## 1
Amino acid sequence: MNAFDPVSQDLFTFGLWTVGNPGRDPFGEPVRPVQSPDRLVHKLAECGAYGVNLHDDDLVPFGSSASERDRIVASFKKALADTGMKVPMATTNLFSQPIFKDGAFSSNDPKVRAFALQKTMRAIDLGAELGATIYVFWGGREGTEADACRDPRTAIARMRDALDFLCGYVKEQGYGMRFALEAKPNEPRGDLYLPTTGHMLHFISTLRNHEMVGVNPEVAHETMAGLSFVHNVAQAMERDKLFHIDLNGQKIGRYDQDLRFGSEDQKGAILLIRLLEGTMGGKRYEGPRHFDAHAYRTEDEAGVWDFAKGCMRTYKILHARAKAFDSDPEVMALITEMRDAQIDPLLHGGYSKQKAQALKGLSIDAAQVAKRGLRYERLDQLLVEHLLGVRS
Ligand code: GLT
Ligand code: MN
Ligand code: MN
């Protein structure tokens, strides 16, 4: 066994829809056979994953009878028990069925909104039965092409109504679940409501039970929007709102590629791992490391497992590189925080009249301060050298 081979303690998870993706795209048919959820659980366990996540319909096909549901769930639970795999996260598919063609919670049709709530309550029950403690909301169809169809303010208010309702449901059932909202700027709709993690964070602050709701940022989605994923994740972490994370790879300005983690933008990936794993200091992210990605369409089943192992190995390799970078004495010297015993106390703890007076009275030579070179060229080169493995 190699130091970078994944083990259960690494908390790596995959969605059933990720390793189960048969390679269908908008231009082509599936290229791989569909694998049963039970088989995916066994194969993921063999690869060293900790757990598996699912949409209701990934496990119990839409329209199944109650007895079919019970049979499928019992067999799936046996696969989990046989392998020791966990289901830390569950979610609802509110995007595949035709009824959701113009949204679920934000639809103009009350019947659609009621159907979405009904489906979500049942899916939450399923998630609770499987032991999930995180429940994700990704509003794939919550958006528009013909924007005149509704007041976007109404759409947001309807999303709030749905989440307030569902928080109440989870609390009353005593499930102890927390919600994680996932943003995406577009695709499959022309424009999705609440398009970035930052929008989600503000929206959460307007919810009745905001303490039980956080975010599930995805590398690909923030990158599509041209944003720094690391900054988005950091903003969530700074307020203890990173409840879950979707790791993958993405080129800027493209459709949602959901590539193998670390296959693109390795610098962004190592910066992310420094943050999540706390090698740079600060609180570590303790939740599952979920890969929301899928194998290239060129792959057969063996290629899917190459893909899954690749996500996890790259994470661990980058983690080792991040540790080396953050414990490199030259790096540490370059990023040592500057201190000023006179000024520092004036900058913390908010406003006071005395501080305002003291600040106004400070004599700061702006030209002198500006002269100092910051040595970020050297710092960034050190990051690149650690990343490329030529410095240990
Ligand atoms: C879908 C989407 C993902 C979401 C999943 C959860 S489903 O594959 O592209 O980003 O995380 O609904
Ligand atoms: Mn995702
Ligand atoms: Mn995606």
## 2
Amino acid sequence: MRRVVVTGAAGFLGSTICEHLLAAGDAVVAVDDCSTGRWSNLDHLTGDLTCVEHDVSTGLPVDGPVDAVMHFASAASPPAYLARPLETLAVGSEGTRHALELARRNDARFLLASTSEIYGDPLVHPQPETYWGNVNSVGPRSVYDEAKRFAEAIAMAHHRTFALDVKIVRIFNTYGPRMAPGDGRVITNFLEQALTGRPLTVYGDGSQTRSFCWVDDEVRGILALLASAWNGPMNIGNPGEFTVLECAEIVREITGATAEIVFEPLPTDDPTRRRPDITVARRELGWEPTVDLREGITRLAAWYRTERLG
Ligand code: UDP
């Protein structure tokens, strides 16, 4: 049994990580300031779970031995981070430094939740870890993109300077139960709209692409990375690539929604395409996603109907 600190534990991804760790018999210290997460996301969990309400950009007060630190605290949906620009920069910079210092004090493994956003609007497709990205450092999205790029830089500096065991997961669009209602992400919006009979809002002409990974596939990959000897960044995502318009049509088809699709303005610097190259994850972890978009949307629509609308 290990004792694992998870920051951002009350969020969508953090709560699913806690679920998998506890199911494997690990002890979990869950840290969150509940700015975008909710403790109720952990209500269904049993096992050795301690909850600490704290903003990690001001410190990380965890006593006792720690075997691994998983740093997932941050607003993650574009509307959420655009509404909290300075907090997002703070948690990516100071928050990451505090999480690294906790790992260093305990000689623990450190895993950073990074993002496909570090590739910006990519000029290389699909994106391998060796691609350096195409990011607008002064645009509105830079508060998230550059915070995560800084987080990667400070994590690797700790690896080089102190030989800290650093893993960086670059997470591509992930979806599943407990995504925050109204978080503004495309799958959340389309499903909520379809199931409540409202028009589906496609931004731009819907030709931009994303690659969507079912949350349990994503977390299985992340925990395999944590258990591995790998240091540095690794893409974990589902390479199945869809235009946003295709995504809207799949949601309509699966939910049987009759509501129309309406077109709204494209947000500033919205990436035109995104697809992970997962050669490294396949080779190093033997990891492969198993749930395709239609299967995932079917599962998530069922969850919404019972948990949110039932
Ligand atoms: N999007 C959309 N309608 C919505 C919400 C999002 O067309 O109601 C688009 C958004 O412009 C982007 C893609 O869907 O091209 C994915 O957006 P999301 O906010 O989920 O995440 P991102 O990949 O941009 O971080």
## 3
Amino acid sequence: MIETMQKNDSKQFNFKGKNFLQLSDFTTDEILYLLDVAVELKAMQKQGKPHPYLSGQVLGMIFDKSSTRTRVSFEVGMMQLGGQAIFLSSKDSQLGRGESISDTAKVLSRYVDALMIRTFTHESIEEFAHHAEIPVINGLTDLQHPTQVMADLLTILEHKGKLAGLKMCYIGDGYNNMAHSLLEGALKVGIDISIASPEGYMPNQTIVENAKQIAKETGAQITITHNPVEAIQNADVVVTDVWTSMGQEAETEKRLKAFEGFQVNGDLCKHAKSDFIFLHCLPAHRGEEVTADLIDGPHSVVFDEAENRLHAQKAILKEFLQK
Ligand code: CP
Ligand code: NVA
């Protein structure tokens, strides 16, 4: 028998049929509710309790970029929820031969119950969502990685026992999907966030303006600086990401120079709180954005974070797909 989520029964949130494209589309309460559902589903899975909320449903997954965690966690998540997932790489489908996004979205809407898409421009996923008659979930674009940040928030909650009132810092490439989704996600749940990035790699200005608005609503603080030592002062949560994201490989050498001084290492982390936790969405480049001793050391929770992709996404799938 499927257990009801009595803890949340009093709250009425209706995600059915909606898209999951960026965290700024959701209220603080909606994000906290999805995290609650993730906690419940994780407990059920750990206790071996079946939870086939999506029996008979199928998730289509389109990948224009590589993936280990996103692909496997969505696929396993659908299986654990009683459904199935289909993997489509753009190079093996007609999308790679130029079939339009609108025709693809309309056709796939006739077969599957939802689409998860990992692609390059954020506009492409918005176009998919516009033409699809089923929910579209963002599995990463150049601009946003919201399912990763849901897993990050779940990991912080597990390790710190709370979200609001904590301080997070993100050191590295500010104009990247992780920085943007962390800005929105952290501020929505009341976590102060400081981002330190070199000149030329600061966060997207539109996202920053929107983030300032979110900060006003939740009372959380936002700081954007070029100074990693300033950003990491008293941080509870230290985050970084690769300096060269997928699709930017031609800029690798230039970026290695630009990000000198922005490595997360033991010296820098002396300025964080003594019990800070370290997050990285992975894959990581040890010796570049983070030292091996840090990511493989006692402050690192990167494998809990990777596991939580599964649980956080199952909550999204359950809430957005359940009939
Ligand atoms: N963190 C993350 O999205 O990993 P993958 O690229 O392996 O999916
Ligand atoms: N910023 C990285 C995240 C990988 C999960 C990228 O886009 O490649």
## 4
Amino acid sequence: MSNIITRFPPSPTGYLHVGGARTGLFNWLYARHTGGKFVLRIEDTDVRRSTRASVDAIFEALEWMGIEWDDGPYFQSKRFDIYKEYVRKLLDSGRAYYCDCTPEQVEEMRKRGMAAGGKAKYDGACREKGLSAGENRVVRFKAPLTGATVLEDAVKGNIVFQNAELDDFILERSDGAPTYNFVVVVDDITMGINTIIRGDDHVSNTPKQIQLYKALGADLPTFAHVPMVLGKDKARLSKRHGAMSVTEYQKMGYLPDALINYLVRLGWSHGDQEFFHRNELIEKFSLDHIGKSAGVFDPDKLLALNAEHIQAAPAASLIPHLTPFLKAMGIAAEDQEYLSKVIETLKPRSKTLLEMAEAALFYYTDEIVYEEKAARKFLKPDVLDPLNLLVTQLEGLNDFSEKELEGAFLRVMDTTGLKLGKIAQPVRVALTGKTASPGIFEIVEILGKERVIARLTAAARFIEEKS
Ligand code: GLU
């Protein structure tokens, strides 16, 4: 067990976004890679925007991805006493003070600052007033006025911020609510977080946070700011680039391992390897190969990777992922052994689990509905004899192994003088209703004698009725 402690602190203001999930994954992988700890914290201080439904959606998405946390979930909304205590500490040590400037006055200061060619900032009017608590008073941080604050970032290198550019930011609002940068630092200190991997949209917050760590006498964590994920057009990732919610990918039939693989590769690399199993990611993930440029989200690549993961997964491991899709189509699929065989035939031809479930339908229904074009092209009077012949041949078989089946088909070919393709395609339509399916022998073997004969007979009847 190492002493690395990372965290994932989503704000519950909507579904879990793929970009946010990627940051969570980085923290989770780093904790798992180092044998450290991964903490989940719900940043719900913005009570107007935070909802219980979003919290549940985040849990659900993490659970589906198989991301387990070792500590938490902590809820910021339940930690107000701790934040109060830390405000007190900073007030007592002289690193914070009460300020009674009105919003209008602060606005004036900002304008003046700008007009003087400087920064729009609070000018420290109340710094030395020694005000005590009172109505309409906020608590401000007494920030260093000179010198520089350096962010030693594990991804970006050193970033220097001039302290003169920063101001005495608010720690606690007049209604007693603590501010974002303050609670993050208090949480990270009290939760023992020593490695913070997050989106580089937070870089500008970091100097303030570093100053707070120092004022509180706490050790600085390692910061790793990861470039954002962008769309193909290099714009900030949004709905028009494809589905954004992790749960949507679940619903579309993606494997969690494929989504994880894809998201992690968007900002981290290991040579030019693209395909990773979950355990391999854990084994290989490190901070030094996080990329410096933005990852570009490409739904087509994600789909292709999903197909690869489906193909690589043992059938048994796909069962729990596929079953909900089958159930939604009214298929109970209780026989696991049968389902495994079904999956094995569909793996090479399914890009998603949804596609796989749809393709599996013919294995489970007795009422085969022929696609109109397929029936018109392949279920014609000239195949009536070959179909009947095949039924007779199959009836004579004791075992439905591939070898036996081949023999039966060969005898029909011999008798009729037809090529395999001429027989296989009508048989395929008879058994599946479609012109594309897994290999004909595989299907016949899995469906078994009784069902195959019933379907071939039904197709023969269909042809007779039509003509
Ligand atoms: N709650 C913040 C967010 O969703 C995370 C802040 C952080 O990582 O420090 O962006």
